Amino acid sequence: MKLAVATGLMLAGAVIGLLFAGPKAFFPLAFVVILVAQAEFYAAARKAGHDPATALGVMSGALLLVGVFTKGASAAGLVVFLTLVFSIVWYMTIERRDGLLTDIALTLFGIVYIPLLGSFAVLLSRACVGPGECPPNGGGLALVMIGAAAFYDIFAFAGGYKFGKTPLAPSISPKKTREGALVATVCTLVLATLVAPLLGPWSPVQALVLGALVCIAAPMGDLVESMIKRDLGLKDIGVIFPGHGGALDRIDAVLFTGPAVYISLLIAGYIQP
């Protein structure tokens, strides 16, 4: 537990410092963590007997992240399309003819699930908050999103440890409890309502809605990763962060909270695509 807390504090300090330093400072960290998580996913798929095109997938993930950071969200669709085309060509060049559809699907899923969803954190960090043309100033938006997802996870663990009795999704992740989810929901709603207006354009009521979105998206991201691990027959996907597991374990909730927060800000008209 002490090791996990120390690692968590170091990660939190790095994220906060780099976000306030600007999107150009934050992007290298996001780039590395997201690609490591993608590589972990492909390695896990290989352990389960599949054969995704790891090199092609990771290179495409890197291209997607760079494209989104430099050109905006429109770059993502082009990269995903080209990845599908090159994945098909990739497997047409090998002699094996069994399981190809599964491997193509895994290659593409690894890009959509991790770099594509992860790129919304990058989009938030480089967002322009305010009318007309303005420099990227979305560090507070990304910090609220990442922080809310992290605190939901912390509160869910603490609530489950103290009060947990009823499994939340026993067939997917038997250790997660409804009581933990309830504690996390209440605490995240309160925290979002108090803190989000200080770091972004939200009113208290809008911040409460934001907290509700996080309380839906964060556990969904966690359960999706648990579902993947169970389907692949693995307990852990990575172990890169002491006391925390792999990179994917650290960003699984962010992969879903990022799109939810970004899209809500677009709908509200606070940022431009």
What keyword list fits this structure?
273 residues, globular, mainly alpha, two-stranded antiparallel ribbon
Describe this structure in words.
The mean pLDDT is 90. This protein is mainly α and 273 residues long. It has ten helices and two strands. Helix 3 (54-71) packs parallel to helix 5 (100-125) and helix 6 crosses helix 10 (254-268).
Gross morphology = globular
What distance lies between the first and last C-alpha atoms, to the nearest angstrom?
Answer: 41 Å
What is the radius of gyration computed over CA atoms, rounded to a whole number of angstroms? 19 Å
The average pLDDT value, as a whole number, equals: 90
Low-confidence residue ranges: none
Q: Assign a percent range to the helix content.
A: over 70%
| Series of H and E elements | HHHHHHEEHHHH
For the largest sheet, list the strands in their spatial order.
1-2
Strand proportion, as a percent range, falls in: under 5%
Class computed from helices, strands and strand pairing: mainly alpha
Counted beta strands: 2
**DSSP helix count?**
10
Q: Main sheet, how many strands, which sense, barrel?
A: 2 strands, antiparallel
